[in-house]
Every structure is written in C-alpha cells, then in structure tokens.
Amino acid sequence: xxxxxxxxxxxxxxxxxxxxxxxxxxxxxxxxxxxxxxxxxxxxxxxxxxxxxxxxxxxxxxxxxxxxxxxxxxxxxxxxxxxxxxxxxxxxxxxxxxxxxxxxxxxxxxxxxxxxxxxxxxxxxxxxxxxxxxxxxxxxxxxxxxxxxxxxxxxxxxxxxxxxxxxxxxxxxxxxxxxxxxxxxxxxxxxxxxxxxxxxxxxxxxxxxxxxxxxxxxxxxxxxxxxxxxxxxxxxxxxxxxxxxxxxxxxxxxxxxxxxxxxxxxxxxxxxxxxxxxxxxxxxxxxxxxxxxxxxxxxxxxxxxxxxxxxxxxxxxxxxxxxxxxxxxxxxxxxxxxxxxxxxxxxxxxxxxxxxxxxxxxxxxxxxxxxxxxxxxxxxxxxxxxxxxxxxxxxxxxxxxxxxxxxxxxxxxxxxxxxxxxxxxxxxxxxxxxxxxxxxxxxxxxxxxxxxxxxxxxxxxxxxxxxxxxxxxxxxxxxxxxxxxxxxxxxxxxxxxxxxxxxxxxxxxxxxxxxxxx
Length: 518
What we know:
The protein is mainly beta. The chain has three domains: 2-179, Multidrug-efflux Transporter 1 Regulator Bmrr, Chain A (Alpha-Beta Barrel), CATH 3.20.80.10; 184-252, SH3 type barrels; 305-517, Beta Barrel (Porin), CATH 2.40.160.20. Helices cover 10% and strands 46% of the residues. It contains five helices and 33 strands. The strands form five sheets. Strands 17, 19, 20, 21, 22, 23, 24, 25, 26, 27, 28 and 33 form a twelve-stranded antiparallel sheet that branches. Strands 1, 2, 3, 4, 5, 6, 7, 8 and 9 form a nine-stranded antiparallel sheet that branches. The chain has a seven-stranded antiparallel sheet with strand order 12-11-15-14-13-10-16. A hairpin with a 4-residue loop joins strand 25 (412-433) and strand 26. It is elongated. The two termini are 53 Å apart.
C-alpha cells in the first residue's frame, strides 16, 4: 500500500510555484502555529522535479529493505524555487516521519525538522495547483509582516489519492516564518551589487544592480537583506543582497510627492460708479514632480568571467619523429650501434579566460605552453674513442578556444572541456660528432599546426581543482643550424635524397595536474 500511495502521489504531483493564481481565494484559513520538532528519513536530491517518481521509488525500496517504518504521511521538502534557478539546480527531498531511534543507511538520510514556527495553509484540489496556495500564503505573510525562514514542506494527507477526484485531494503546506519589522527601502551604494538565490555568498547570482538602484526588503537573514524582484515574465522572484552593499532610505527619499498648489484669486481695485469687474484667477504653474529613482524590476543574465591557470605533467606522450630517424641512420651509418635515450615527457602550463554563457556552459580563450623534459629527442652512437650525438628539445605554444560543460554543483563542481588549438612549434638542440669535430647548434625554426584535447576537471570549492586531459597534435617543424660558410649564416641538414630534415612533433598525450581559478 505504501508503494502504491507514494507512486500515485508523485506521479500526479507537478508543483508549479512560478505560476500566479488567476483568482484570489479566501485566505482566512492561513495561520501561524508552533510545531514540535520531529525526525524524518529522506533521500536528498538535486535536479528537476520530474525526477520525483524515480526518487520516491528509491525511497520506498530502501525503507522496506532496511525495515524502517513511517509514523506519518509522506513529505516533500523544497529548498529553492523553479523561477530562481535552473531545473537541474533545484534542491528538494522526499521522506517520511520516523521514530527517533531509527538508524537508516545510504541512500537514506535521517534529519530533524526544527523549524518550529510555521504558517500553515490547506490546499484542496489537484496537486498541480498547490503553487497557487503557496503564492497566496506568501502574500498573506507579507501583509502580516512575516518573512520566510526555511524550506517549504508539503504533507500529502490522503492515504490513497487514487480513490479521490483531483478536486478533493488535500495538501497541508508549511512555510517556516519569522516576524519582520515591515518593508524598508534599500539603495545600492556599491558600484555593482549581486542579487543571489540564497543568503549565502556561494549561492547563484541572479542579477546585478547598479549604484543608486532602489529596492524593497521585508527583512534580513544572516548578513543579507531579503528582496523581491520581477523576472522577464513579470513574476515575483525572491533574492538576497549583501547588507554591506546597500543602505536604508526612507520612503520619501524614493519619490517625493509635491502637493498641488491652491489656486489664488487676485483682486482688482474697485472704480467708482463702475461695476466691479472680476477677472479669472491666475493659477500658478504646477511644479513638476521630482523624478523617482529607478527601481529594479527585471532580472538580467549575469555573465561571470573567471581566469583559470593550469599546471600539468604528462603521464604519456609520443612524438612521431618523422625524418629525424632517417637522418640519424644516415649520419651514423651503423644504426645497430645506436643508443636512444630520449624522454618524451613534458610540462604543460595554461591560462584561460572563461565566460559563463549559461549556468551550465562556458566559453574560453587562452593559451598553453608545452615545455619538454631535457633531451626529449636524443640519439647517441658510441664508438672507439668518441661518440656521435643528436639532442633535441621541442617547445610548443598553443592558442585554444575551450568549450566547457559544467555537470556539478557549487561545493564540488565537475566539468567536461573540449579544446581545439592552433599550435606553433620550435626545436632547439645540438649535433656533436667527435670523430669529425663537427658541432652544430640548432636554432629555433617555427612552424604551425593544430591540435585538440578533451578533459575532465573537478573543483573543490571555488579556487582549487584537479584535471586530466587527453590530446592529439599535428605539427611538423624544420631544422636549421648556424653555418658561417653559408650566405645566410644558416643551413638545413638534408638526407642523401636532398630532402630537408624535419621533425614530426605530432602524436598523442595524457596529462594530469592542478588548476587554480580566480
């Protein structure tokens, strides 16, 4: 029976708090009551309300598997609102009251409802319309100088909703409250003031208000004023603004009302033997009222910009090498006596400026530098009385435009990033042959190419994170060395076929490292 009831409730329930009521029903049934604290088990969830059926099924299965019995009706607890955050940012719970000695295990959590002062209202009708009653309760609270002081709780009172018509379903709604001092006017004194979705500096930014903007507040929560704005659809949206960014102003400072002057009559002197002539009174010009301060009414999307620095080291890297190996075989003449001790490892440093296009997507512009470990491309031939050696070090700079998809929350954000890149490479190093007393010093000779990488990042809080990238390069670089005998002062090593020697720096790589965000 519990499973059937729970399934029917959450299959039918689609709370739409963003919709305002078209008619204003009777509000005399709303009242403030004191509630005793109680324990409940629940499954906390972050995501769209359309997932409630899945979460409710998990709740029922877990309670039955752990032999935990409810001692009251099913509860829905909601911590934010669909009109203030994206659906995937909604935070809510599904649960049942339980005995204080209940010991649930994952995925269940045991919590205590300790919001003792609540406004209670009874919604009678389809579950999909409970948002209308919540909207009226909010209006009743504002009219009676009460402010919201906790999450909204819904108690579904009918044990078997399938036996009732939608119009007869009963939902008891609790809104934790506290007495407020009434409405005050606030003027923004900071250059820009963030309006956040909750009384927390880490909560989402809903809008930014410029200096001089005037808003109304119904009270404070912690270090924030609770204010109400209107979104682009004209719906009221609750927000919070830092106390340090605003100042209290009186109602008269918001808009001065200038009283209209009383018309005055101007009397003319009487002339003897002539009837008194009365002129029409001259009415003084009515002064224009002082313009009112602009009050914020609509929320605008906030584009958040952040600088991200990365420090990575390669777990795996490959260079294609290209014609370098063919040339080395030719100059050594005996490749069987070749000792190759190259280290393909490299260090990666990156800096990217990210712009949040939406709450879940960001576009970046930046650069990265790949610095190879010493003697990244190294070949040595040891022979009697000497050696012949090539030691090269690649150096690559990339200009990239990363695209980032955010898949986490504020506490531990994860993301997936794809970065197309334009690459520019150089190679430095030496060629030394003790048998012929030949010594060449290779000079940087830049060439361009392209690359692409993809990775996963995890941020712990706002500033620090770790990441892992997998990438691919396509880049070929030429070689040249100082040659005093050449007309240009430089020469290029060539194969016996006359082909100039090039180094292919293309290949794949895997890196991991640290991220710092500002």
